[in-house]
Amino acid sequence: MLTVDFDRLGFQPGDRVLDMGCGGGRHAFELYRRGGDVVAFDMDADELAGVLELFGAMKEAGEVPEGAEADIKQGDALSLPFADGEFDRVVAAEVLEHIHADVDAIKELVRVLRPGGTLAISVPRWLPEVINWKLSDDYHNAEGGHIRIYTDHELVDKVTKAGRFNDGTPGDAMVFEGKDYAHGLHAPYWWIKCAVGVDNDQHPAAKAYHKLLVWEIMKQPKVLQYAGKVLDPLIGKSMVLYFRKPAGSSVTATA
Question: Across the chain, which distance is largest between two alpha carbons, in Å?
Fold first, then answer.
């Protein structure tokens, strides 16, 4: 279940790509399958071990093209262990809403992206997320849970102003190129979960809707694909923003 549109990101086979906060690896796997040179980055060693294992299984099964590469790296989003401009594409899907110092994390994403490269950031969309917070304190008060709700204007502002030029003057390091919404079918599921209890997976309504989502993911029926396209711009659970680093940029991270 992908959130980021890799065609809109401008991904090409052979691109070096960072999936920052990769979690279980869903975007990293697809990038690898498409022929990328992929680094799956996260702070959770157990998650990364599972990602590395599946990278190996994909290669053994012949699911990746010749020349594709994939590896994992553990670390802190506030201090990425990569060189300036190392990556052609950077993905940060559903991670910034968990990070207290989100501006510092964004600066690191900008730093490791090459001039001319592109960045995709997805976060929970404002309206569906507000409803979740109103319905349940447990939804966002859990350890490692969501600590903020972004508007599109706030996040665009934070990313476009995430760096400074080498002479120290402030500048709009990144160019905002547009936004999408995704997972319209998933927002009602979380509203149900928040209403009946986020851990109450056996509630009849939550259980029934979960079966619907499994059907969507596994079988991809046409009717649900169409429903998703209709619902995504209306109540899509995720907002995806796309940015480009100017080709002539000399932007670096700042403290």
Answer: 60
9: left (phi over 0), alpha (psi -120 to 50) or beta: alpha
Block residue for tokens 């319209």 = 184
Note whether 89 and 147 are same-domain residues.
yes
| Token output for 59 | 């290669």
Strand pairing partners for 89? 17, 118
Both 151 and 189 in one domain: the answer is no
SS (H, E, C) 101-156: CHHHHHHHHHHHEEEEEEEEEEEECHHHHHHHHHHCHHHHHCCCCCCCCCCHHHHH
Encoded tokens for 127: 């309206």
Query: What's the CATH code of the domain at 161?
Result: 3.40.50.150
Comparing CA positions, the residue from 61, 72, 243 lying closest to residue 163 is: 243
pLDDT beyond 50 at 168: no
29-85: pLDDT as tens digits: 999 999 999 999 999 999 999 999 999 999 999 999 999 999 999 999 999 999 999
Helix or strand run (H / E) with residue 225: helix 222-235
How many angstroms separate the CA atoms of 19 and 98, rounded? 16
pLDDT at 1: 85
Q: From CA 157, how far away is CA 30, in angstroms rounded? A: 29
Q: Are 255 and 104 in contact (CB under 8 A)?
A: no
